[in-house]
């Protein structure tokens, strides 16, 4: 066959990236990147995503890629949980809220007064924090906001942007799985939950599978950008699902760790898990492609480091990631750690250095002073949380994890990768810094029937991309084991 070209857009919390995927029937190439920032807006005390700015950047990307390419298809993936509400004429009713907006500050606790946390897990297979869609929608109910009465349709962010491109409204299954609003098997909406919380359900759309073709790009966009009537494909809308789909040679009972703004780590299974131990461990279920599920946990990662960089900038210091890695590499551990999930660390605003020291003080640990100590504390805390989750999955959930793959932008942080390998005492295969884009593109070729199964997708990924192997250093695991036990006793790892 001749070479075919598709375009993927991956929106992250700090920026967007688009890329061209080229497949000649043997090897996939992902290149020709088009980047743009994602700058949230704070208006009158609320925090929003700049939806129309993101849409404009995507359309600019189409123009950029259309110059020398005949494009067969396009698709968008994003972070999870964000949504837009449309009225009966398909118009946006309000700006798209940022998931850290403080309107949901008490929503989870108030939600659990109506529907206890354990029962919610049984009914959804999910344990949402306040950033998930379910508590965001419940916040309208608890604040007696009538906007849901005007909403004809709710679309998650990738579905919303692809509606703008194609005119078709539907909800892709993997992005719906980030909402806390599906049944554990990820097959349908959890109507019992929504009814209990008085969230009206008439605005919910039917679920479609990853790889579903919505329609072609609308004529006005096709003409304005030169991209033509390319197909708009609902690839895996959730960035983590897209990334997991594209991991080379990945499969059942392997561990993936997707590291970027957040860590999303878990394993692939053929069933959802709603056992007591899964509940106690904070695990959640989501669907990716076909009958495959992922059992996972997620927590903050480089968002904390970026907030530290922001604190440095206020001091007139500019440290990029290579400088930070060298800084940490040349320093020694102070053996103090933060809980990367703690609300005091993750609420927006404030100075991250002060937040870290406040947490250390509250937990009876030594305070930090130097830049390298703050950076090292954050990286070691991420690695310690990864180790805790890994050990829990093996011992408490009886999942025989036999291979570890680390993907997305965090895989380039060689200091953190070595920490993780040492802590797990396992080889760690790292790479695909643009794993989400690769998975998005691979799913588009699956939709175009160039690939026939998830196994074929991953075989092609293995032929096309190389992963770097990190080997654990002798004796390091004993130190990590001791530190983990100490932090468990302090209640910092949980």
| Beta-strand residue fraction | 15-25%
Rg calc = 22 Å
Q: Tell me, rounded to a whole number, the average pLDDT.
A: 95
What is the structural class? alpha/beta
Instruction: Outline the low-pLDDT stretches.
Output: none
Q: How many strand units?
A: 19
Shape: globular
* Tally of individual helices: 20
Query: What distance lies between the first and last C-alpha atoms, to the nearest angstrom?
Result: 52 Å
Give a quick account of the main beta sheet: strands, pairing sense, barrel closure: 7 strands, mixed
Fraction of residues in H or I helices = 25-40%
- Can you list the strand order of the major beta sheet? 15-16-14-13-17-18-19
Protein traits:
alpha/beta, 7-stranded mixed beta sheet, 6-stranded mixed beta sheet, 494 residues, 20 helices
Please outline what is shown here.
By secondary structure, the chain is α/β, with parallel strands linked by helices. 40% of the residues lie in helices and 19% in strands. The chain contains 20 helices and 19 strands.
What would you say this structure looks like, in words?
By secondary structure, the protein is of the alpha/beta class. The chain is about 40% helix and about 20% strand. It contains 20 helices and 19 strands. A hairpin with a 5-residue loop joins strand 15 (about 285) and strand 16. The longest helix is centred in the C-terminal third of the chain and has 25 residues, at about 370-395. The relative contact order is 0.13. The mean pLDDT is about 95.
């Amino acid at each position: 066959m001749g070479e075919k070209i598709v375009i993927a857009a991956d929106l992250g919390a700090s920026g967007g990236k688009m890329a061209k995927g080229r497949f000649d029937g043997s090897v996939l190439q992902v290149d020709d990147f088009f980047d743009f920032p994602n700058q949230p807006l704070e208006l009158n005390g609320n925090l929003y995503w700049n939806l129309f700015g993101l849409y404009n950047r995507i359309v600019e990307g189409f123009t950029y890629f259309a110059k020398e390419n005949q494009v067969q298809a396009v698709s968008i993936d994003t972070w999870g949980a964000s949504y837009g509400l449309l009225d009966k004429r398909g118009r946006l009713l309000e700006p798209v809220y940022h998931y850290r907006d403080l309107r949901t500050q008490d929503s989870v606790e108030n939600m659990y007064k109506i529907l206890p946390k354990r029962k919610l897990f049984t009914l959804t297979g999910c344990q949402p924090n306040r950033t998930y869609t379910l508590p965001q929608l419940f916040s309208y109910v608890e604040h007696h906001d009538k906007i849901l009465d005007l909403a004809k349709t709710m679309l998650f962010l990738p579905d919303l942007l692809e509606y703008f491109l194609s005119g078709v409204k539907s909800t892709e299954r993997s992005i719906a799985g980030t909402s806390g609003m599906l049944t554990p098997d990820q097959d349908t909406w959890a109507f019992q939950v929504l009814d209990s919380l008085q969230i009206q359900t008439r605005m919910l759309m039917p679920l479609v599978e990853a790889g579903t073709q919505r329609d072609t790009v609308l004529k006005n966009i096709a003409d304005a950008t030169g991209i033509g009537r390319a197909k708009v494909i609902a690839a895996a809308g959730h960035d983590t699902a897209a990334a997991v789909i594209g991991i080379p040679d990945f499969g059942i009972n392997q561990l993936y760790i997707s590291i970027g703004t957040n860590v999303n780590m878990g394993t692939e299974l053929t069933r959802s898990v709603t056992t007591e131990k899964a509940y106690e461990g904070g695990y959640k279920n989501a669907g990716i492609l076909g009958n495959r599920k992922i059992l996972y946990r997620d927590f903050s990662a480089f968002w904390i480091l970026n907030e530290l960089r922001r604190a440095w900038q206020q001091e007139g210091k500019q440290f990029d990631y290579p400088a930070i890695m060298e800084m940490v590499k040349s320093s020694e551990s102070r053996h103090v750690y933060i809980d990367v999930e703690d609300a005091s660390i993750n609420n927006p605003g404030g100075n991250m250095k002060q937040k870290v020291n406040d947490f250390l003080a509250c937990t009876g640990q030594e305070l930090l002073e130097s830049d390298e100590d703050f950076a090292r504390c954050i990286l070691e805390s991420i690695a310690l949380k990864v180790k805790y989750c890994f050990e829990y999955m093996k011992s408490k959930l009886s999942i025989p994890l036999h291979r570890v793959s680390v993907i997305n932008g965090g895989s380039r942080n060689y200091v953190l990768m070595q920490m993780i390998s040492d802590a797990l005492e396992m080889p760690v295969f790292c790479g695909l810094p643009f794993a989400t884009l690769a998975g998005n593109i691979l799913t588009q070729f699956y939709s175009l029937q160039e690939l026939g199964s998830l196994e074929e997708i991953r075989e092609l990924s293995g032929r096309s991309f190389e992963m770097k192997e990190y080997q654990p250093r002798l004796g390091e695991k004993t130190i990590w084991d001791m530190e983990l036990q100490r932090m468990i006793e302090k209640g910092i790892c949980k």
